[in-house]
Amino acid sequence: MPNNKLGKRGRRQKTVNEEKFIERLIKISRVSKVTKGGKKLSFQAIVIIGNGKGKVGVGIGKASDVINAVQKAKNDGIKNLINVPITKSLSIPHNVVGNFGACKIIMRPSVEGSGVIAGSSIRTVLEVAGIKNVIAKQLGSNNLLNNAKASINALNALTTKSHILKKRCLNI
């Protein structure tokens, strides 16, 4: 078979970008659905995926076994990737607040060498994104998924000086 990217039946194989992603599993839970015939058990997985250079996403997957649930969560995380602006000191450009449900996340840039000062899934999101110096505080709910999504919302709200100038059509 020639060395082209066509699989069986001449279809093009789906390939994700060649960049390597860091995957962190933050939660696996066994969930059940009660039907007329009894309880149907399945597993839910929450995965945080990123490249360590400013891209990060949260994925959720549910399947009848753990391996498929984790794989679905990885694929969902790749679909939900966002770009995060990172400063030269591997921090965030400015203070930011993110909300999701009853969760509120407050993030502040920190000096170089201080490390990631954050708890639970927020720390994982920041590390996978490649942010090394930041202080984060979690308020409200302790739900891992909601905290991860709130931190993604906070990182999505970050802007840089050049982005604002471009938005206002200014050239400086």
From TrEMBL:
Protein name listed in UniProt: Small ribosomal subunit protein uS5c
Database matches in HAMAP family: Ribosomal_uS5_B
Gene3D superfamilies: 3.30.160.20, 3.30.230.10
Protein location: Plastid, Chloroplast
Species, as recorded: Toxarium undulatum
Record note on quaternary structure: Part of the 30S ribosomal subunit. Contacts protein S4.
Pfam families referenced in this protein's UniProt entry, alphabetically: Ribosomal_S5, Ribosomal_S5_C
Function: With S4 and S12 plays an important role in translational accuracy.
